[in-house]
Amino acid sequence: MIEYKLIEKAKECFTMAIELYNKPTIKYRVEGFSLFICNAWELMLKAYLIKREGMDSIYFKDNPDRTISLEGCLRKVFTNEKTPLRRNLEKIIELRNTSTHFITEEYEMVYIPLFQACVLNFVEKMNEFHQVDMTEVIPQNFLTLVVSMKALDEEAIKAKYPEEIARKIIDSNNKLQPMIDENNQGFAIKIEHYHYLTKKKEEATSFVKLDNKSDVPVKIIKQIQDVNDTHKYNMKNACKEINNRLIKSELAPIANQYVFNLFNKVYGIKENPKYCYVHKQFSQPQYTYSIHAIELITEEIKKDPENIVANLKKSIKKD
């Protein structure tokens, strides 16, 4: 069946895109990722069009021997040209089409927010259109792309490359940044690095030394995160997100206020700033939760969905 073959090829292209991008020995992985992720989308969308409209839908009417492009598939499936998902893919298609001449490793710093969103969009639509769970093909934790720790340095780029190439890199970054700010996570996943000082050496991932004689000034910032971004879920929305994830894993939705409070008590979620932020400006403290809390609860439920509530109750009684 042609639909099945297209879906299998789409899964393989998607896997190749992820594996190529996350392979540390490949320097110029932007070209490969953009090529394979576009192929994956084209194959998946063509399979969807065939299922929805028949075989003729993927061919040009005036040329029945030629199939439509990925751009044509996008216009048919995502008819609203302002949809963040469509805009995301259109930008990656532009990158793919110019990669032969102008792509350098610095483009990774510009496009990684779009690449990560594109990966998550594909996983979502593969499930919606074809009931295929890509986390059974690639484990969930491997769907996160490796991020460069470098920042885009315009002066270094100008010194490193000819004017035409340097201008294209800088212009691409300047055009994309406002679009990233204007759109939601369907267009781009912002990549941000946070650094915290701690005296607990076992919790550190890197080490620094304070030197009063240093010529380089450093300012310590106590608080740099926006909790509206990092801890944006109230309990009701957190339960809804957990249940959506359980449904996608073909499990019964069981998250509610009672279950959530059980997890709060057993795992100390309210006491852990990674999971919970306490808003103390109100007469009664209010709590909002991070995506990490949602992931923790979802994964624990998936381990033993039938007995998780009973096990949580037993843990509380032991304490």
UniProtKB/TrEMBL annotation:
Protein name according to UniProt: Uncharacterized protein
Superkingdom in the source lineage: Bacteria
Domain EC042-2821-like Restriction Endonuclease-like per the UniProt entry, residue ranges: 226-313
Domain DUF3644: 5-177
